[in-house]
Amino acid sequence: MTNLKLVIIIIAFLGLVSCDDNRVFDEYQTVSESWEKDEEISFALPELDTSKTYNLFINVRNDNSYKYSNLFLISKMKFPNGKVVTDTLEYQMAAPNGSWLGTGFTDLKENKLWYKENVSFTEDGEYIITLQHAMRKNGEILGINSLEGITDVGFRIESAQKP
Asked: Are strands 150-159 and 128-133 parallel, antiparallel or unpaired?
C-alpha cells in the first residue's frame, strides 16, 4: 500500500511540473567553478510573435557556497537593429534570517527573478540577452572577480496572455 501511495505522489508531482503552458523559451547555461567578473552569459532568443506580449525572467541556481544575501546583475538586451538596452538589477537571494529564497529540496536553490513585464518584440531578427554579475563588497570600489556559489544562469520567456 505504501508503494502505491508513493507512485501516485510521484505521478501527480510530475504532472504538475510538466504542465507549463505559458513557457515560450527556457534555457540555462552552467557556470564553471565560479562566475568570473568579465564573463558574459548570452542567450539568443527564438523568433517571437510580434503581436503578443511576454514576461521575461532571469533564472539563477545557487548553492550554499554563495556568500551573499543579494545579487547584482548587468543585463543587456541587443535588438536586431543594433540598439542595446542596459539595466543594472538587484535581486534578494536570502531572507533576513539567512535562509535562501529560492525553491528546491536540497542545498541547490532555484530563483525565478522578474526581469521585464509585458514586453513586445516588434522588430524582425535576432534578439540577444547578455547577463554579467556586478557584485562587490560593501565599501569597496573594485568588484568581486570570482563569484562562487552560482551554478547555473538561465533566461525564460513566458506568454503574458493566458492560453
From this structure: unpaired
Specify the pTM. 0.84
Structure confidence by residue, pLDDT tens digits, 103-147: 998 899 999 999 999 999 999 999 999 999 999 988 878 889 999
Residue boundaries of the structural domains of the chain: 24-159
Q: What is the pLDDT of residues 45-87, one digit of tens each?
A: 999 999 999 999 999 999 999 999 999 999 999 999 999 999 9
CA 125 from chain centre, in angstroms, equals 23
Longest dimension (CA), the chain: 62
Question: Grid coordinates 535562501 are at which residue?
Answer: 100
Task: Output the CATH code of domain 24-159.
Answer: 2.60.120
CA 7 to CA 76: how far, in whole Å?
Answer: 45
Name the residue among 161, 148, 163, 162 with its Cα closest to residue 51: 161
